[in-house]
Amino acid sequence: xxxxxxxxxxxxxxxxxxxxxxxxxxxxxxxxxxxxxxxxxxxxxxxxxxxxxxxxxxxxxxxxxxxxxxxxxxxxxxxxxxxxxxxxxxxxxxxxxxxxxxxxxxxxxxxxxxxxxxxxxxxxxxxxxxxxxxxxxxxxxxxxxxxxxxxxxxxxxxxxxxxxxxxxxxxxxxxxxxxxxxxxxxxxxxxxxxxxxxxxxxxxxxxxxxxxxxxxxxxxxxxxxxxxxxxxxxxxxxxxxxxxxxxxxxxxxxxxxxxxxxxxxxxxxxxxxxxxxxxxxxxxxxxxxxxxxxxxxxxxxxxxxxxxxxxxxxxxxxxxxxxxxxxxxxxxxxxxxxxxxxxxxxxxxxxxxxxxxxxxxxxxxxxxxxxxxxxxxxxxxxxxxxxxxxxxxxxxxxxxxxxxxxxxxxxxxxxxxxxxxxxxxxxxxxxxxxxxxxxxxxxxxxxxxxxxxxxxxxxxxxxxxxxxxxxxxxxxxxxxxxxxxxxxxxxxxxxxxxxxxxxxxxxxxxxxxxxxxxxxxxxxxxxxxxxxxxxxxxxxxxxxxxxxxxxxxxxxxxxxxxxxxxxxxxxxxxxxxxxxxxxxxxxxxxxxx
Length: 593
Description:
CATH topology of the largest domain: Clc chloride channel
Shape: elongated
Order of helices and strands: HHHHHHHHHHHHHHHHHHHHHEEHHHEEH
Number of helices: 25
Number of domains: 3
Number of strands: 4
Strand order of the largest sheet: 1-2
Distance between the termini: 36 Å
CATH architecture of the largest domain: Orthogonal Bundle
Helix content: 55-70%
Largest sheet: 2 strands, antiparallel
């Protein structure tokens, strides 16, 4: 039985639903989804901060530091235990999981994702796992929007929109940045959107940001102010920083995938992976303590030009005896952070790449500007470069330059750095796009042919299943049939293509009506000519589970309008361009938001 409070809540919404028209109820729903997702984000941030204070700041016993480096191991093991025992081993990680649900599952997300990512990521990051909270927040908010729409039986369009509202509210609450929240949904989650969708997204993001404003303490939000106004004399250095940001973003994407591929294939020994991952993280944290957790406090230290604080508690501290070694220490962290993040997530933890991308950007910006200054070339504003580089890495990894620009604008509290932010983000995005056509999340899906959100047409085509458009009303012909028998079959068929199938139901060829037109009226050949003499091999073959991207490529390469479908080498039917385009038009109308 439902609790009385939930019963009255649902009754209240149903009453509101009956009093409002469709558009009004959608706006009302966006406010509720934004509120719930915002509170979820605030709850996650608060839980992680509480765990951090409990195990780090208030932990005053002997050998505290030795225990401190093993806390990520504890977090990974408890996360894996939670996933295996409570969630039965199922936890859709990352924004890619949400994008896949939009494309392949009609924007339905499991109900348990409304809470599972809060607990699992809190355990991972709270105990020092080197990952971010924003991706779990996005998934949680998306699941809230999706399940709200499911409860009140809203259409696919409205379900996708409320899913995006939940994501917007989550990002807005995490950073107190409503504009970035809206832009994140537009750039990353929605392949196409109409002007009418902006209002629900804006309302949800504003409500989510309001939650963090009211509830979270100032120190719990990632925020700081830029140090110096923009100086156009440094434009060339911002251009160089943009190129460097793009190249480092490419490194980030490829190194993350490499570590993930190294760890993920062993899917059975989940606890062993967590133990090994936790021990490797312990070694990395022993060397680089700022890898512990999200790392936002170290970014603040860099922006305030307090770099020496970063080497405190490092086992390397006694060896770092001059400023050049401090800067080298920071430069190495640019490349090590992605390894730590990939190990954290691939070993069974739950987290995202949002915070790590900001971490890498800040360290890159400080390293670049500091080296330029130490070489005596010129004195650059290190705080500005630290901040601006964050947008470059974020734009490069997520292919979301607008989100990157406005996120940094909002968390710095001003527009004084807008020009360098635009320069660095645009150049970084352009460089990455040359080497990596897809973002980190889209790349995983594109490899499987599932979805490409940057292109509406490709996104819709990739969402189609071959099995749903197979046509089976083709008359099969035996290879040993005579021309006369074939003509009789043609006379009773409305098709112009005939599969030639043997006794084992294997396709051995096809007959095209155009290719037999000259002989089919020669009666003297009816008993002496056989189908196996007239058939030809198909231009290409497809399987029921093949991606639509691959199928369309075969259509383009072969020039055919119909291709046979084989399952385990047995004939199933045909797919045609016309049926694909017909299905595409139906989905296009359905998915227009």
